[in-house]
Write a structure and sequence with these properties.
InterPro entries: AB_hydrolase_1 (IPR000073), AB_hydrolase_fold (IPR029058), Meta-cleavage_hydrolase (IPR052370)
Number of strands: 4
Strand content: 5-15%
Radius of gyration: 17 Å
Strand order of the largest sheet: 1-2-3-4
Protein name: Alpha/Beta hydrolase fold
Keywords: Hydrolase
GO molecular function: hydrolase activity
Distance between the termini: 22 Å
């Protein structure tokens, strides 16, 4: 399970671990510089994150071609890269709300729609920025933030972002400023793509384009759901993942 921006893996998968652990043995790492993960390496690329995950899996004795990877947003970029470079390790792939294949211009255009510096949105430093991140990421259930005191949001920011703030900003800039390959490379694994039809970060049309590009894929669209599918519709997402990976209707 590979998380996105917006906190560590424990926070992002809080509504999914209980259900998914009943059907699978779960590997839930914090990507490098998220949570307590750290490296002295100066590399900030998606490839570095992918190598780190693969290294961890191999140390655990995993990777004989029977792995399924579920990824959201930023984690989707990492998962897609693993599937391309180490195809022998992954049997099935689940990609949720991820801008894989977006050009630099497309990524910057979508993020700038929301105003402010992109790195400030992805790596908030104050309650105002955190509220904006949640507003951009979700279509439902966001009104509660108006009632949450600033000091609680500040504590959340301190736990999730302060330890490796500069590194997280560098990761975001590398992701947004790098130019993807002219032609989105294809992968052979069976792939489930899940998207909210109200995604304001990576619009649904990109999910449809990704599905057309991958002949061995299917697309599930969730109505009235935004970018944060794992938070807004965890039960539906869990059921889709279980059905897809286990091959049951």
């Amino acid at each position: 399970m590979l998380h996105g921006y917006g906190g560590n893996s424990k926070w992002q998968f809080i509504h999914q671990v209980s259900d998914l652990s009943k059907s699978f043995n779960l590997f839930i790492p914090d990507l490098v510089f998220f949570g307590k993960s750290y490296s002295r390496n100066t590399d900030r690329t998606i490839e570095f994150q992918a190598r780190s995950i693969v290294g961890g899996l191999k140390r655990l004795g995993c990777g004989d071609g029977d792995l399924s990877v579920y990824s959201i947003s930023y984690g989707g970029f990492v998962a897609y890269r693993i599937a391309k470079i180490w195809p022998e390790m992954i049997e099935k792939l689940v990609i949720v709300s991820s801008g894989v294949g977006f050009t630099q211009q497309q990524k910057m255009t979508e993020m700038k729609k929301h105003g402010g510096d992109v790195s400030e949105i992805l790596v908030p430093s104050n309650p105002r920025d955190l509220r904006l991140l949640v507003k951009v990421s979700m279509n439902t259930g966001i009104r509660f933030l108006d009632w949450v005191p600033d000091f609680i949001l500040s504590q959340f920011i301190a736990v999730m972002y302060e330890t490796n703030r500069q590194e997280l900003v560098d990761l975001a800039k590398n992701l947004l400023e790098r130019e993807e390959e002219p032609e989105l490379f294809s992968i052979s694994q069976r792939t489930l793509i899940v998207w909210g039809d109200k995604d304001n970060v990576f619009p649904l049309e990109h999910g449809r384009r990704l599905q057309r590009h991958l002949p061995n894929s299917s697309l599930e669209v969730l109505k009235e759901i935004g970018h944060g599918v794992n938070i807004e519709a965890p039960t539906t997402l869990n059921n889709l993942i279980i059905s897809f990976v286990l091959g049951v209707p």
